[in-house]
Amino acid sequence: MGQKDDLATDPQCHARACAIQTCLAKNSYNEGACRSEIDALYDCCNAFYSNNGDDAKSVSCPKASLLRLKMRQRMDENRETGSRS
User: Fold this and answer.
1) For residues 72 and 80, what is the distance between their CA atoms, to the nearest angstrom?
2) Is residue 28 part of a domain?
3) Is 85 part of a structural domain of the chain?
4) CA angle at residue 25 from 19 to 27, to 5 degrees?
5) Model's pTM, two decimal places?
6) CA–CA distance, 64 with 15 (Å, rounded to integer)
7) To 5 degrees, how large is the angle CA 84–CA 34–CA 42?
8) Does 76 reside within a domain?
9) Which of 23, 44, 74, 78 is a Cys-bridge partner for 6, taking CB atoms 3.0 to 4.6 Å apart?
10) Cα Rg for the chain, rounded, in angstroms?
């Protein structure tokens, strides 16, 4: 499913949030094993806020300010490890 499709669902980005839950359940709730699913949700939510403004709401997305903080933290982690998972 592409980002355009993710943003067309109701609630927006819901499939990405479900993918995280599925991945976590399959991997004994090891967040590190689900980095790509988490990144996909954050990318979808970032597009959601870009399209709808920071006050928009989706049950699948953290608040815009928290999303940006988490994305910055992940970028910093990726720089430290030299990769993007």
Assistant:
1) 12
2) yes
3) no
4) 100
5) 0.85
6) 19
7) 65
8) yes
9) 44
10) 13
In terms of Cα–Cα distance, which of 39, 37, 29 is closest to 70? 39
- At residue 24's C-alpha, the angle toward residues 66 and 63, to 5°, is 15
Q: The domain containing residue 73 runs over which residues?
A: 3-80
Q: What is the pLDDT along the chain (85 residues), one digit of tens a residue?
A: 677 788 888 899 999 999 999 999 999 999 999 999 999 999 999 999 999 999 999 999 999 999 999 999 999 988 887 755 4
Instruction: Determine the 3-state secondary structure of 38 from DSSP.
Output: helix
CA 67 to centroid of chain Cα atoms: 8
Q: Is residue 60 one of the residues assigned to a domain? A: yes
Identify the CA nearest to 38 among candidates 15, 17, 69. Answer: 17
Q: Which amino acid is at 52?
A: N
Query: Distance between CA atoms of 80 and 1, rounded to whole angstroms?
Result: 30
